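Subject: Interface between my chains keeps coming out wrong

I've been trying for a while to get a sensible model of this assembly. When I model each chain on its own everything looks fine, but I need the whole thing in one frame so I can look at the contacts. Pasting all components below, labels as-is. Any help appreciated, I'm running out of ideas.
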Amino acid sequence: MQTLNKLTKRIMAICLFALISTVTKAQETTTVVDSSLLDRVNTLEKEASYIKPEESHLMAVGLLTFGYVSNKTTVTYNGSSSVSKTNSIGDADHFEFSPMFLWRHGKKFLMEFEPSFNVDGVGVNWAVASYYATPGLILRGGYLVLPFGTYNKRLAAGWINKLASDPEGIADASDFGVEAEGGIQAGTTKWSYDFALSNGMQLQPDGTTQFIGITDNNKNKLFTGRIGFLPLANSSIEVGASLMTGKVGDAGLKYQNANATLWALDLNLVENLSPFQLNIKGQYSEAKVDNAEYTDPNNPTNTYTFNNHTKTGYIMAALRPMFSQNDFVKNFELAARFGNYTTPANSLWGTKDNSLAFSLNYWMNWRTVVRFSYEAIKGTSTVSQSLGGNPGEITKSNSAYIQFCIEL
Amino acid sequence: MKILNNKKLTILSILVLMIGSMMLVLNSCTASQKISMKSGAQLWAENCQRCHNTPSPSTFTPEQWETVGMHMQSRALLTETEKNKIVEFLSQ
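Reply #2:
Try treating it as a single job with all components included. I did that and got this:
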């Protein structure tokens, strides 16, 4: 029996030794494997942290403006009138489907791209990359919305605009260029600046100007800038002044030094007067292009000239019982806008227009609206008879809109 | 001096002065205590309505608000502090 016990103890001791040896060896092996794995894991973690969700983010938003318009236009000249009527689904002037892609990389870089499908087909509203350099400085390059006034850059979207149509005379101003902008707090007041350099505009054969696109027509660059000032601590009032200037002539041609200078003043007031919110917005601008001689399209051997000076402005007021206790009533909004647009007399596009528009809006939520709008525009032609025009001809345009706008 | 004629030099000088002034303003401007004490909710109410209705916080996720915040900082030319406070409020 003692012999058996001794044998059992020896076997157990051998097993224990074997077990300890195996574990020790396994631990040694594990240690070696862990070391190499840790290096690899560290490398992968560094790579992963570069693209972890909170650092890089792509999202799509966008807007749709869709509607119906019934228009009656009456043209009167020398006592005789002609009338035309149209009813259009889709509202060709204002239909727009524009998805917008925002691609953020960390907190310093943002890429923005907004293609747009409208009456002109498929185009691009803007396509830019921005670098948030310091707290008060954003640098940008690409296809920009130029900082001239506030309408194009902030207010033109259907779901933001309070009326169905755009104010007359505010042309799209997007161009290829670079931009620097920022907002600065100074005590209780606030300033903003926005400067851009871009390829610029080209003088057309009729004296109008058009943005030239990605290839410039001269060596000069267009400067556009706006300074904004918010004098009150609650940011309820903003006034701004803008300047746009640059050569518009084609290099090597007669009017290569022709210059265009535009300036604008803008106003924004939002005041909460319980139970109402009052919203007043306005913009006034003038454009002057250096005098040049243009070819008469009716008689190419003749040239003509005119004072190439355009003025345009609008003032808009909206009132909404936003703070009413009634959930239905608080979603209604009334808006009105008066506009004036005067283009150069004795040009092919000379006119003096006055417009008046009203709108009743119903907000389905903060970014979805159905509106019923009416707009009357009275234009008086200032095209000279020598160019084949009918000076004094009056065009009255009356339009009724039903419009749906959403931003997603 | 063919490349830089008098007109170009004037414009360049004005630009340099403008940028210099802007940098001075950037470095010297500080928010008053009244402004510094503002909450994200107050800044959200004051600034968004300058152009459009105030958005509901539930519209986007915190990650999306960070991206939208950068977009709006540029559109409305918000200060960095305003943007950060508004995004923080909307992300709660």
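Reply #3:
Confirming on my end. Residues 23 and 61 of chain B are 35 Å apart (CA to CA).
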